[in-house]
Specification:
The protein is of the alpha/beta class. The chain contains 9 helices and 20 strands. The longest helix is centred in the middle third of the chain and has 16 residues, at 163-178. It starts with 10 loop residues before the first helix and ends with a strand. Bound molecules: zinc ion. Zinc ion binds next to helix 8.
């Protein structure tokens, strides 16, 4: 899902849009993102979905969800986008890459609170590339930034040339202004933003194909397959959300994506920075206050990943889950604002409302200064599901009872796998999972038994559902 700069709300909504053929470039630039409505709530799903019940992906900004979508420069109708005339303050300017010449890596700066609070100066010095998460300046909940490329993706060195640091810093300043001094708790090392570079194992064409809606595999999203591969190489710290600037494409043109617990549990929020795609437009936009639209849009996705906007919010959108419906300028409106986005305009939906029974990001420990009454994202973190031996299959079958927790099966293999539910009568196929993606068995009852097998039915492991959500990593086995 995405934020403000954006285009459509849900995929179905996108399809229904009637758009005028021509619009201003600036306006078009601002229309990038959209989020699909979330699937049924995890806790209320009575049974494990079957293979062809493809849940609607939660947080996805559809740039081009279907062939009927408008071209990149198209603009939603006035009825779809309430403020057709950008105000003077909405002026945007192109953002160039930092032009500073690379210099030798600088010595590690001393760790100071001030430095940690301002990870990105206006023109950060080029830094040395890091391929692993560096030691953390602080132990709390935090957002770790990554620059991720497919195996054949063009390396623009956005992690080391200061571009990502500048973008994130601009969004932090925007957030501080909007929230009287709150900011994301960003992972820093030596007082500077710690950005990890990851080169994926798969080429762009393979990864982008995960957005295809065909087939029976659930969550066919670039966001999900990136999450699974990043988890497989260790990016699953229990106190970290990963914000990914991704230099690859998607065959539906999505530019942003995030999780949305409890409906969709996950730990990454992505912004697509590949040049030559529709995402190039938002990438080059800067709001009138100097904040980078793409970084603010990424914050929208991070907010989703932290659980916003909860369904209990008074203005939770009935058209697009996870969003508000009351103000088109709001950061969490389904379509991006053309003017500088605002955080929970009326302070009644997701930030600072103070209501104890509804998620309030002002209480999130992922923000600094850390609140005294920290409230974690729903279902955070998913515990690690422990595998059992395949020899237990004959006796493992159980229908389960009691509270529903659920299991997420991460297929960290280069081959398809199958997910079966085990009952006293035997195996029942619940999902066929493509390589490097996940199967979300929502609402699996405590004690229910699950078997994962390769494409030929050969057992890889057995898992038993617990009363809380668990996450099973399935590796090996060809
Ligand atoms: Zn969204």
């Amino acid at each position: 899902m995405h934020t403000g700069v954006g285009r459509a709300v849900s995929h179905s909504f996108v399809r229904g849009l009637k758009l005028p053929a021509a619009v201003s470039l600036v306006a078009a630039n601002l229309l990038l993102a959209a989020c699909a409505p979330p699937p049924a709530d995890l806790q209320s799903t009575p049974k494990a979905p079957v293979a062809n019940e493809t849940p609607v992906p939660v947080s996805t900004i559809a740039q081009t969800a279907t062939p009927t979508l408008p071209p990149p420069t198209a603009f939603p109708s006035p009825t779809a986008l309430p403020s057709p005339t950008p105000s003077p303050s909405a002026a945007t300017t192109a953002v160039g890459s930092p032009t500073r010449a690379p210099v030798a890596p600088t010595a590690t700066a001393p760790v100071t609170p001030a430095a940690a609070q301002a990870p990105a100066s206006p023109t950060p010095a080029p830094t040395q590339r890091q391929t692993a998460d560096q030691p953390d300046d602080q132990d709390g909940y935090q957002v770790h930034f990554l620059y991720v490329l497919p195996s054949d993706g063009r390396d623009e060195e956005l992690d080391t040339n200061g571009w990502i640091a500048t973008a994130v810093g601009s969004a932090q300043k925007w957030l501080e202004k909007e929230t009287a001094g709150r900011r994301l708790s960003v992972d820093t090392f030596g007082g500077e933003i710690d950005i990890t570079f990851v080169r994926l194992s798969r080429p762009d064409a393979v990864v982008s194909a995960y957005d295809s809606r065909s087939g029976t595999t659930r969550e066919p999203l670039v966001r999900v397959t990136l999450e699974v591969e990043l988890r497989s190489i260790g990016f699953e710290h229990p106190r970290k959300v990963y914000a990914v600037y991704y230099g690859g494409g998607s065959d539906t043109g999505e530019c942003f994506g995030g999780s949305y617990p409890p409906s969709r549990v996950g730990n990454i929020a992505i912004a697509n920075v590949k040049l030559g795609t529709r995402c190039e437009e938002p990438r080059k936009l800067v709001y009138a206050d100097g904040s980078y639209a793409i970084a603010v849009a990424n914050f929208h996705e991070i907010f989703h990943t932290l659980g916003a906007v909860a369904r209990c919010a008074p203005h939770h959108s009935t058209e697009s889950g996870g969003h508000v419906s009351d103000d088109p300028q709001d950061l969490m409106f389904p379509r991006s604002s053309r003017t500088v986005p605002r955080v929970d305009v009326a302070r009644d939906d997701y930030f600072g409302h103070g209501k104890p029974a509804c998620l309030d990001l002002a209480r999130s420990p992922f923000l600094l200064p850390a609140p005294p009454d920290a409230e974690l994202p729903p279902l955070w973190p998913a515990a690690v599901a422990r595998p059992r031996a395949c020899e237990e299959e004959p006796t493992a079958g159980a229908t389960g009872s009691g509270p529903r927790g659920g299991i997420i099966f991460d297929n960290m293999r280069a081959a398809t796998m199958q997910v079966f539910q085990l009952t006293p009568e035997g195996r029942t196929l619940r999902d066929t999972v493509r390589p490097w993606t996940a199967s979300y068995q929502q609402g699996a009852q405590t004690g229910s038994a699950w078997l994962v097998a390769d494409a030929n039915g050969k057992c890889l492991a057995i898992f038993v559902s617990e009363s809380t959500l668990t996450r099973a990593s399935v590796r090996g086995g060809g």
